[in-house]
Amino acid sequence: MIELLRIDHRLIHGQTGVFWTAHLHADCILICSDKLLKDPIRLSAVKLSKPTGVKLVIKNVEDCIKAINSGITDKYKLFILTEDNEYAFALMRGCGIKECNLGSMMPTKERTHLLNEAFAASDAEIDSIRKMVDEGYNLYLQKLPTTSKVNVKDKL
User: Fold this and answer.
1) How are beta strands 113-114 and 120-121 bridged, if at all?
2) Which one of 21, 70, 75, 143 is most buried, by most CB atoms within 10 A?
């Protein structure tokens, strides 16, 4: 069962690996990333960051969609992490996931729209977020489980 889909450029770190995983009672973290699988150093670092007692699975977007739709992940309390809006939106469309936590995305030269103190987006990402909202998906900003959810519609 999918407990949460979260976009977070850092993937596994203190907030996700400790607070969110415990809050969700997640027993499996599924990282959905084409980019991560092509970066052996970062991949190693992410694997080392896995919380004790929690299964970690890392797949590309296509394989994540196949795994979720096959039902093989149904036995887990699944916490899905990705560092890319488009990966998250592909999962949502491909697997019928209706909501997504926009957790953390670092500002860059392209990511100049600050939706809150933790989430920045580029012009193209803002357009994509608007499209998802228009299609009826629930996108919200929430840094920690102890902070309130803010509907992204209120920030666009």
Assistant:
1) antiparallel
2) 21
